[in-house]
Amino acid sequence: MNLTVLLSTFVLAFTSYQSVFASANKFTAKSIRSGDNLISILKDHGFTTNERSQVLSSDKRLNRLFLTLDTRYLVHKDSGRTELRMFDSQTSDAFKIIKDGKSIKAFKYDPKYKISIERVQGRVYGSLMGSILGKLKSNWVAARFIDAYAFDLNQGNQVLRGAQFWFNVEKKYEESQFVKYGEVLQTFLEVNGSPIQKKFVRYKTGGVFFNEDDLLDNKPLHAPVKYIKIASRFQPKRLHPITRRKQPHLGVDFELPIGAEIYAPQKGTVLRYGKNRAAGNFIVIRHPNGMETSYNHLQTIDSRIKKGLTVQAGERIGAVGCTGYCTRAHLHFAVKKQGRMVDPLKYIKAYPSQMEDFLEKRVAQN
Ligand SMILES: [Zn+2]
What we know:
Elements: H1 3-22, E1 28-31, H2 38-44, H3 49-58, E2 72-78, E3 81-87, E4 94-100, E5 103-108, E6 114-123, H4 128-135, H5 139-148, E7 164-174, E8 177-191, E9 194-203, E10 206-210, E11 230-232, E12 252-255, E13 261-263, E14 268-276, E15 280-286, E16 292-301, E17 310-311, E18 316-320, E19 330-337, E20 340-342, H6 356-365
Antiparallel strand pairs: 1-2, 2-3, 3-4, 4-5, 6-7, 7-8, 8-9, 9-10, 11-12, 12-19, 13-18, 14-15, 14-17, 15-16, 16-18, 16-19, 19-20
Helix pairs in contact: 4-5
The protein binds zinc ion.
Zinc ion (ZN) binds next to loops.
């Protein structure tokens, strides 16, 4: 990063800090505590059983609201009127819940967040995850930092004891109050003793962690999504935590909201598609190099998908969902090479096909 960018980052951080605390402050921010959920919070603020069910039935997305300890919610009470503002930890969903006398309203809204930037730095002792959490207690932020290196910490590369790391992360403010962390924007980590820096490059509603070297890798496939957040990796020897039975995970799970677009990662032919109990809606594509890729738990399979259809790299094939055996919306993406399931992260690039030109131009401008 050059000095001008660095300076402007801090100026931005400083000015938003000022304006954040200068404005009138009628909302109170409350931390999410262990064991809290929407029901317990509504109860704490005087919503009766009946009122709580009215809230939940106002918008079904409220039933999936995911709250974690690194986020806060807002409360404003004024002569018989209570307003709560809730922010989903993993998605951009935000809700207003208003109790005014006997009337209950709950609906999704778009906060106009003010953003400041926090810089975090440290060294790795023990696990990378634990070392980051030691500096900033947010599983979201630690997981996003690790996502930045998903393709680098995958090929026998290691983070050595004492390795340095730093990153800049967005802090989001609503009504002058910090409510949640945003994206990790720039990262630094020593891998095998060599520094690797990444930038989060936004692209339409998504974005990927990137550096120039990522353009040079000659992996055969592109990413099937435009926002890479890894919920579960390829683990051929995974043991079920309770049954202790072998329950391998033969793909990678990309966590994305319902409806996010899925793209063909390379030219290919639809081998089969359909629906079954475990996979939900699924598609399997065969590529000219003999590899097969599969996509499970889709909300929808695009209607033009037919057996034998040729798709080009970057063409949309369906949308992320939670069909089949699934608890949170994600894409289970698997790669088969010469008849064996392989780790998809070893074969896909860090970005989808349609971002390639955009990234090349960015690099050319620097
Ligand atoms: Zn999976």
